[in-house]
Amino acid sequence: MEFIGSSITFKQKNLVIKSLNYMERHKKIDQYCKEYCKKNWTDLSFDEANNLIGILDKMAWR
User: Fold this and answer.
1) Is 33 strand, coil or helix?
2) Average pLDDT for consecutive 10-residue bins of the chain (62 residues)?
3) Prediction pTM value
4) pLDDT of residue 4
5) d(CA 2, CA 27)
6) Which residue in 60, 48, 58, 56 sits closest to 31, CA to CA?
7) What does the pLDDT read at residue 23?
8) How far is CA 16 from CA 24, 26, 49, 56, 62, in A?
9) CB 3.0–4.6 Å: which of 4, 18, 32, 44 could bond 48 by disulfide?
10) Nearest in space to 16 (alpha carbons), one of 29, 26, 3
11) Residue 29 has what pLDDT?
């Protein structure tokens, strides 16, 4: 990662990586909902959201 200076700690670097993974996961969920569920992810019921997360967890996030 070129943009990270040498002064960043290991803990900070892990936090940045986790944040990027989290944002990527939300993009995937949003994309999947729009394409397949034809509704916004915030409009899903608890069961629909739970099933969706189960499906996406089996797929590669990266």
Assistant:
1) helix
2) 63 81 80 81 82 76 50
3) 0.49
4) 54
5) 24
6) 56
7) 82
8) 12, 16, 26, 22, 16
9) 44
10) 3
11) 79
